[in-house]
User: What shape does this take?
Amino acid sequence: MNVTTSLKVRLPVLVLVLEVVTLALFAAFVTYDDNANAKLQNNETNPMENSLYRDYPYFADVQVMIFVGFGCLLAFFRFYGFSGMVFNFLTATFAIQWAILIQGFFQFYYDGKIHLGVINLLNAEFACAVVLISFGAVIGKTSPVQLLVMALLEIPFFSVTEWAVLKYIRINDAGGSILIHLFACYFGLGVTFVLYRPSLNKGHAKEITSYQSDILCVLGTLFLWVFWPSFNSALTLKGDDQHRAILHTFIGLSSSTMTAFALSAVFNKRGKLTMADIQNVTLAGGVTVGASVDMMISPAAAYSLGIMGCTACFFGYRYLTPFLAQRMRIQDQCGIHNLHGLTGLISSTAGICAILLANEETYGPSMYQIFSHRAPPVGDPKLEELQKLIPGLKPGLGRTAQEQALYQVAAIFSTIAASTIGGLLTGLVINLPFMASPSDEGCFDDEVFFDMPSDFDIEEALKAPIRNDEKEQINSMNSKV
Assistant: This one.
């Protein structure tokens, strides 16, 4: 047993502390919301109008993405399958319960309590997705202790940023391109910058995939692909907005998938398909439509965004990831900057364009529901006219399209700055010597943290002749998340 990586004391003590703190906070501050409180039900209450039936299908879909999609996707290394799936399971479980509390204080706290319903769980899963995306940058070179501490710190950083952007800057970001994808990407890059390991730039013998691990990984891709429309549409306005979000996400994913296959064959030296491209680049369209997913951008625009996102992601994986590792000390193990950073920036830019082009001729009076901050303020005669057409329309800030676009830009830079600073600080914390970090030799190796079955013989596997395509995998950075 290696004392420096032993979990015998570190993990149980950390888990005990986290559970005691979580239990105390749940006991002191968490209660049921109106839809889950039996005391508020009576003979005038229609059970079928309970928010459970509106929110649970989306919660269930995102749950599959978090635990099955991400779990399988992160099991792509040949000798790191246990760690990829199980560390994802552990980290996600803690991140969700921690996000219920931290987000609860910002979004669901009143009368001295956090009011808990399925919508809280759904929001917490989005926060969890942020942590798991960041995890992709440091996979293979971190311990479960480090990952739990990363989640412990990232959730508050994310929750504060989300609250500040939505409350004070006030933006449109239905699919989370800014607040989820950009935040997660640059937080993860900040962490991996601090955890830089020079020896890994020369390649690692265990940083390879296998036939079985690639199949498991592409299964994760399929789960994410199938449920991504739910991810992008879960928090949009019900009705036509949500309808468009589902349509645009599917169209964007479809076009990015087709493009990924074409690019993979064209740029492969032997004219064959590369599994890394199928596992990763096919998902780019789901991100690039995110910021404008509920807007009237047209199906053709969604298709184009899928192609643009896929192309940027593909070439980012091919050229930018090695550049970041060699020149900027950023070892992005899964290429999250390609799938979440570059595509997030494209999506945010597309969202700004859609905001600038939005007008009543295209949207009708519902424009002031979708772009709620452009709705007339209290006291404006136009607000009363609109409320006759759209009952329940809330007063806005009276922003022009140009003003709202500038606020979107401010949100992008604010989010990137906050996430980068948070990532750097978190990296400093989890780089402390007692965090059970594996050695350079122990990276990408399940044996460091797991009792392995008898048929797991890493020495014999490494002695086997390496094919040319496996050599290419060792010499280039894999890009999966």
Notes: The first strand starts at residue 30 and ends at 32. The two ends are 32 Å apart (CA to CA). DSSP finds 18 helices and three strands in the chain.
